[in-house]
Design goal:
The protein is α/β, with parallel strands linked by helices. The chain has an 8-stranded mixed sheet with strand order 7-6-8-9-10-13-14-15, with helices on both faces. The chain has a 5-stranded mixed sheet with strand order 1-2-3-4-5, with helices on both faces. It starts with a helix and ends in a 10-residue tail after the last helix.
Length: 667
């Protein structure tokens, strides 16, 4: 709220932005409840903001206590107009609500009025649906970017078994659904998904903790607000559950109030917070000027003063108290100074949501400036008409807002066609300092405008972990080493599997291989089955006996020639026979040569047409290659054998024809 009033006063004092216009505003408490928000918004858009006109940056609050979100309506007024004119005129734009669910209800109700709604903290991706919410913009990135960053983060640390919990709200349901879809692309599985009521009683708390204790997951992603985290942490402490790596959504990534009571459980927490402004010049001084004299009419600021300093202002309009009855507090002396006491109000080290409010106000201001700069006849509306900033229609202002780009504090602010800003998050680590205090340390970032491989940057060395010096392991099944493959478990998530050794002849050379690769025929797996090695080679050595067709033909030809000579020798004993002259030594050599030449000719033809070749036999022995001689031409092979067989048969036949000599011994 104070950042909003500061931004408006800053703009009204500038001469380079809206020099002819001044901005006015009204603030209403939404109490984070739909009925209260609807009532407040209808008052704003109907030009009846309340009993008292708001001028010069003063505040008026409706409601007995403040909630998570406020509705801020902005309106332009000319220098000559009075506060009464602002009271009667409808608000052309509303900045709010902080809650996605409340924002959706407001947009549906304000649809007929065509009133633009600019949220500074509603992140539900459902609000990007322009057909359903055409008058919505925000300075808060959509959850579609946040869950993409969270999926990248858990994948980066190898956390494939993650518990996902969230409150029962539109924000959490859409965020959880998007995370499950996005994380599956990185091989991340949900160990469980559970939604719990926004108001946590003991029964839903017990159910939640039973689920957490019954799971092997050590990493839990929690989509909820700060108050629900407080209830969950209290129950976790009662059950003495430790060693959990908490991943925060942006809703509680910077909730410092949790640290004092649950610092021992939240140390090492990681999460993405919306982009932080290093400093908003002049804001700290603006906050430090808070005095009783200028807060008397504001229930918001009165409550802040009384709760922080534990005293009651004279004529206080605050009727709400937390642990101490506001009527029992001692009166304030007037000497109190809110700067003497530490409070989240004066802490400007984490300007995140406040920075979004600051940008939302400047978005409206720059849109009004563009509207003021419009030249007659060149306007964006029918017939080149320009809108009049002093009597504008809300839909005309929204047209300029959708097309406005500006720079603020060194950052370029731009919006996509859905009215969403370009997402940029800080990766925050909850670190315990030596004195026990909390330090929200930026250990990386996610920038959706960069390419996917560069969008996430993490400084691992700067991270403080919940247990030990390194990240916890959270997996359903340990990785399968090389030499084994993943075997899915039926009915279980893909992250739950068994490791099966590769079959014979197959290897895997990487971790978590889905299948094994068969080795080439000339190779065989090693004992670890992660590498293919050359098989042993066996073959006939030249030193061993080797049979050749020509050699056989030569030998049998010699036998045939000698057998024929013996046969002819017996027949030559007959009177008058001269046959032996044809079987002399020369004739015998000639017959052997002739028979051998025939075999040689057959072999030559075989070699010239389809010669024998070596063949590697890999199927006989699994780890050995036997080099064999393939015949090549089957006809040539059988001709060689047939010719040898023919010579052998002739030799055998002639041996039977030769007479057997009988030796007779006389007595």
């Amino acid at each position: 709220m104070q950042t909003m009033t500061f931004a408006i006063r800053e703009i009204n004092q500038r001469s380079d932005l809206l020099p002819k216009l001044r901005l006015g505003f009204h603030i209403r408490d939404s109490c984070d409840e739909v009925p209260v928000s609807l009532k407040a918004s209808l008052l704003l858009v109907n030009g009846q903001p309340g009993h008292t006109a708001i001028g010069n940056g003063s505040l008026e609050a409706v409601g007995e206590h403040y909630g998570k979100g406020d509705l801020i309506s902005l309106g332009s007024r000319s220098p000559v107009s009075g506060c009464a004119d602002v009271t009667r005129s409808p608000s052309p734009v509303i900045i709010g609500d902080a809650s996605s669910g409340v924002s959706m209800a407001l947009l549906r109700s304000l649809g007929p009025f065509q009133i633009p709604l600019v949220s500074y903290f509603a992140s539900c991706s459902c609000l990007s649906e322009q057909t359903e919410f055409p008058m919505f913009m925000r300075t808060m990135p959509s959850d579609a970017f946040q869950v993409r960053a969270l999926a990248r983060l858990v994948s980066h640390f190898g956390w494939t078994w993650v518990g996902v919990i969230g409150e029962e709200s539109d924000y959490a349901r859409f965020a959880v659904q998007l995370f499950l879809q996005e994380s599956s692309l990185y091989g991340v599985c949900a160990a469980y998904v559970h939604h719990f009521p926004v108001v946590l009683s003991q029964q839903p708390l017990d159910k939640l903790l039973d689920i957490i204790q019954g799971s092997s997951s050590k990493v839990i992603l929690n989509f909820c607000s700060e108050s629900e985290v407080q209830s969950i942490m209290g129950a976790i402490r009662q059950r003495n559950i430790t060693g959990i790596q908490w991943i925060t959504s942006e809703a509680w990534a910077t909730a410092k109030s949790l640290w004092e009571e649950f610092g021992d459980l939240l140390s090492g927490t990681l999460g993405f917070g919306i982009r932080r402004a290093e400093v908003i010049p002049g804001l700290k001084q603006h906050l430090s000027r808070l005095r009783p004299s200028n807060i008397q009419d504001s229930a918001f600021l009165t409550e802040l003063w009384e709760e922080t300093l534990n005293c009651r202002l004279n004529g206080s309009v605050n009727t709400h108290s937390h642990m101490v009855n506001h009527l029992d507090r001692k009166p304030c002396s007037g000497m109190e100074d809110i700067n003497d006491v530490y409070s989240a109000f004066s802490d400007v080290s984490q300007l995140r949501v406040s920075y979004n409010v600051y940008k939302a106000v400047y978005l409206v201001a720059h849109a009004l400036q563009r509207m003021s700069d419009c030249e007659a006849g060149q306007g964006p509306f029918v017939n080149g008409i320009c809108a009049n900033p002093q009597s504008l229609e809300p839909w005309q202002l929204f047209h300029y807002m959708k097309n406005t780009k500006f720079s603020i504090l060194g950052e370029k602010v731009d919006f996509d066609r859905n009215g969403d800003p370009i997402a940029s998050y800080d990766l925050i680590n909850w670190r315990r300092e030596q004195d026990g205090s909390l330090r929200l340390l930026k250990v990386g970032f996610y920038d959706a405008s960069l390419s996917p491989e560069l969008s996430l940057v993490v400084n691992k060395s700067a991270i403080q972990w919940p247990v030990g010096q390194q990240a916890v392991r959270s997996v359903c099944s340990e990785s399968c080493p090389s030499g084994k493959r993943v075997a899915r478990r039926k009915g279980k998530p893909v992250c739950c599997f068994d490791c099966v050794t590769c079959a014979e002849g197959e290897v895997s050379n990487k971790t978590d291989s889905l299948e094994c690769t068969r080795c080439p025929d000339h190779m065989w797996p090693n004992d670890m089955r992660n590498l293919c090695l050359p098989k042993n080679v066996e073959f006939l050595s030249y030193k061993e006996p080797m049979a050749f067709g020509i050699s056989f033909a030569l030998c049998i030809s010699c036998l045939l020639a000698k057998t024929l000579v013996v046969l002819m020798a017996f027949r030559a004993t007959l009177p008058g026979s001269g046959v032996m002259k044809w079987f002399g030594p020369n004739q015998q050599r000639a017959s052997v040569l002739l028979c051998t030449v025939v075999q040689g000719s057959i072999c030559l033809i075989w070699l010239l047409t389809y010669p024998p070749f070596t063949h590697s036999n890999t199927g006989y022995l699994r780890n050995t290659i036997i080099i064999e001689c393939a015949t090549g031409s089957e006809v040539g092979f059988w001709c060689v054998l047939g010719y040898i067989g023919l010579l052998a048969c002739l030799c055998f036949f002639m041996a039977f024809l030769a007479p057997v000599p009988i030796l007779c011994v006389a007595k």
